[in-house]
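ARCHIVE CARD
Drawer: 12
Card no.: 0347
Subject: one protein chain, sequence and derived structure
Cross-reference: see card 0346
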Amino acid sequence: MKFSVTALAGADIGCRCAVRVAVVLLGVLAGAASAQTAALTEVWGTVRHKAGVADEAIRDRASKWVDNAGRALNEVGLGTPQGEPRPSVLAPADRDLDTTAPLGLLQAWRAAIVNDPNLRAARAAEAVGRERLPQAQAQLKPSLQLNVNRFKNEVERDSVDFLGQPQTTNERYYSHSQTLSLRHPLFRQQQQAQLRQAGFLVADAQANLEREAQNLAVRLTSAYLEALLARDNASLIQAQGRLIATQLDAARKTLEKGTGTRTDVDEAQARLDLNRAQDLEARQQVELTRRQLQSIVNRSFGELAVLDPVRLKLTPPEPASLDEWVGRALRNSPEIRSLNAQKDAAREAIARARAGHLPTLDAVAQLQRSRSESVTSPQSAFTNASIGLQLNVPLYSGGSTSSEIRQANAEYERLRELLEAVTLDLGVRVHREYRGVTEGIARSRAMEVAVRSAEVALDSARKSFAAGVRTSLDVLNAEQQRAQLTRDLAQARYSTLLSRVRLQALVGGIDDATMQEVAAALGP
């Protein structure tokens, strides 16, 4: 149950005078609406003060995110431009994929930017969030309504004639009225808080879109490198099968000459059968990883580019300090920016809920014309014009406003704790990916030395087998070790590249230039 006190100052005046006054008032309030649009940008200045004068740290954080929300105002023509816009990772245009040329990582990235369904959904979500701002602005602008009605009336009158006898008369007539109403908010603290909250929610939507773009880079690079690793593994297994077949043929020939053993033939045959089973599995993995990549770029493509060890430059991250990377992540991570914007929006939700206890004041103008509205005088017509102020004072709402305040405080506390948890987890993830790059470089270099040593050992085993010193089993074991080390080297290189992309994504640094740098290690 809700009570309100309404005060309306107005007066009925003559028809011609009423029309003139209404027109003048419409002009005055229209001018006030234009001034209100300019005044909306001044609302953001009050956030720094309302964030809490006693807490300087809170004011600093509020100032930062108000500026972000102010950039959202600039997009709709309000506020003052503040510097150059943030570079967008969504700038590259769509490019058709050439199925005859190898698909490079950069071409896949540019196609995924346009075609990835998850990113398209994020763009739509950002457009949804962006509309919160004009909706909040509309609550502080004048509203104009026109109500028109027309009714058919049937009236039955019971009366007594001059002789005292009862009589009944029936009347049928049409009545109609037109009402033009203009309302202009003068004091509405709830809508002011809603406007500030909308700015933060727009910043949240933009941060979520950027986070999805950063995640797309990680998903695409991971799928692309998995496809490369699957293809390299399949090629390695096929090459290994050819070598085993050659070794089997040599073992059979030595057995026929009487210098070999049946054990060498059986061992080579067993290795060849195992290789065929591994080849089937490797082919399936190639097909699966290609389909995973295709689901991201949403286009058909030909072969993938190959890793060029000569062009591959495994350099440590710049800057070389882990603490600096953690600091960059805390400043620029889209995930952190999104949660900060949500937290600030929750703080404005508290102010909005508390404003439910405050009165509202509106300027009201109304022009009404009616005919045959009175049952007692169906032929009458009148015009009424009124202007004034309307004050609404909430007295009691059944505890709803207090409940909304408690709910808003609880939501703010939840987001504050969630931000703390994500901040700590972000530091751990940055540490893991930073070590993945630095240690991946060292592991790749060590694996390169190990592969060269395995190739020397395989060559020695083949020469020893030809001289009759080693058996066929020794050659097969040396070949298997070389194949395993080659596979481990490729995986170490790909893991290092993926860790580099993940590290950049955590600090919000993925853009077209970053993907060009990563793609430079691959073929065209």
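Annotation on reverse: The two ends are 72 Å apart (CA to CA). The mean pLDDT is 81.
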